[in-house]
Design a protein that fits this description.
By secondary structure, the protein is of the alpha/beta class. It is built from 16 helices and twelve strands.
Length: 417
């Protein structure tokens, strides 16, 4: 096996990795889970935190709104939206919850339930677990019924996703919750086409775009979703706790934050109720939001071609890594290249022989644990669609190189053998 020191000497690893505070002794191939924030952005955040603590009243009462608005304006340009339609939230799951729970309990008058018994809430079997739990909760509270479209994987074409979702639409369908990029399988859903087809049928859409900002070129105006939540801490590389919620203008009066605070009865008319409520939900550390603009500028400055080159580089790297891993394992890629961004999954041998009782073990898989324990490789391995079927998900970010995926392949072969 290639010694660990060999790939650490790779010039590309050394030059790009020094921009992050990641442990250089770990082969970090899991940017997709929580992202990784560059040192320069973290330094900008620390300056803001020092500024806050130096004079908290001045910061919150005189400077807060301008700093938040400036960051939101940069984000709006990046994702192709009007600033009036965006609010910051801590993570995409919070944004999804805000929409679902507003539609369960709020209305413009604040008195009636929008979801009614018998309404159908459509999603797929690949929806992110946290957001699916929110959907389950809302359905249990309102009497609405969840309808699940099964997206078979491996998959041969994005057209199959459109067909599968539309087959489950009925006159009772009230809302469709979809991932833009699935967490487990890394599939890019044809979101714009799906939203367009559902809009023709008069159905609102809630898109969980946790992975999309910074992985794909986004234009929320063109996508046309009713609601869209996206993370900034993943592929935009902003500090943890930075995400956004987009709400179509005509729906903003119906959507309330999970925490009701001063904005609910503010007499101000210079800002929308949407911004007044979401922008201030109580005292916390808002510096992650305020660093989103810095993250966009910094990451976009690293390559001559800016963000388009960065996104293309990451995609090319993960596709080449997937091909190499599939070739070495003797398997076919489970989806076409067009459905992949900066995440890709590779099916692995079943795990059942490790457990005599045949039941899924708790926590991470034995293989994921072994890759980290023995080879210092951080990469997720999970059961999909159910135990004992295993898949491994690789990510590609600027600090990754082909040699790291070669090291992963050799380590896998040794473990599997």
């Amino acid at each position: 096996m290639m010694p660990k020191e060999a790939y650490l000497e790779d010039t590309l690893v050394r030059n790009w990795l020094e921009l992050w505070s990641l442990d250089p002794t770990v082969t970090f191939l899991n940017h997709g889970s929580f992202g990784a924030c560059p040192i320069k952005v973290l330094e900008a955040q620390q300056k803001l935190r020092s500024r806050l603590e130096h004079e908290p009243v001045r910061f919150f009462e005189r400077e807060f709104e301008q700093l938040l608005d400036e960051s939101r304006e940069e984000l709006a340009r990046f994702v192709g939206a009007d600033t009036e339609d965006l609010v910051f939230v801590p993570n995409a799951t919070t944004g999804v919850n805000a929409v679902l729970r507003s539609l369960a309990y709020n209305s413009p008058s604040g008195s009636s339930v929008i979801f009614q018994p018998g309404d159908e809430l459509l999603t797929t079997d690949q929806e992110y677990n946290a957001c699916r739990n929110a959907l389950d909760f809302v359905a249990s509270c309102t009497g609405a019924r969840i309808v699940v479209a099964t997206v078979h994987f491996p998959i041969e074409s994005p057209d199959r996703i459109v067909e599968t979702v539309l087959e489950k639409v009925s006159p009772r369908t009230k809302l469709v919750l979809l991932d833009h990029i699935t967490s487990k399988t890394g599939l890019i859903f044809p979101i714009q086409q799906l939203v367009s087809e559902l809009k023709k049928r008069g159905i609102d859409t809630l898109i969980d775009g946790a992975h999309a900002p910074g992985m794909l070129s986004l234009n929320l105006r063109d996508i046309g979703a009713t609601y869209y939540a996206g993370n900034c801490h993943k592929w935009l590389c902003a500090p943890k706790g930075a995400a956004f919620l987009y709400v179509e203008k005509s729906k903003q009066s119906e959507i309330r934050p999970l925490t009701i605070s001063h904005g609910a009865n503010s007499p101000r008319t210079d800002k929308s109720r949407f911004h007044l409520e979401f922008d201030w939900m109580g005292t916390d550390d808002p510096t992650a939001y305020m660093c989103v603009a810095e993250s966009i500028r910094f990451m976009g400055s690293l390559l001559a071609g800016g963000w388009p080159e960065l996104m293309q580089r990451n995609r090319t790297m993960v596709l080449e890594a997937r091909k190499m891993l599939c070739d070495k394992l003797g398997i076919m890629p489970p989806c076409p290249d067009e459905m992949i961004g900066s995440l890709a999954v590779v099916p692995l041998p079943d795990d059942s022989h490790l457990y005599q009782d045949g039941e899924q073990p708790p926590g991470m898989t034995a293989l994921q644990d072994a890759l980290f324990k023995w080879f210092n490789i951080e990469v997720p391995v999970f059961y999909w669609p159910a135990f004992p079927k295993q898949m491994m998900r690789i990510s590609a970010q600027l600090y990754n190189t082909p040699m790291q995926y070669e090291y992963l392949a050799q380590s896998l072969n040794e473990l599997i053998a």
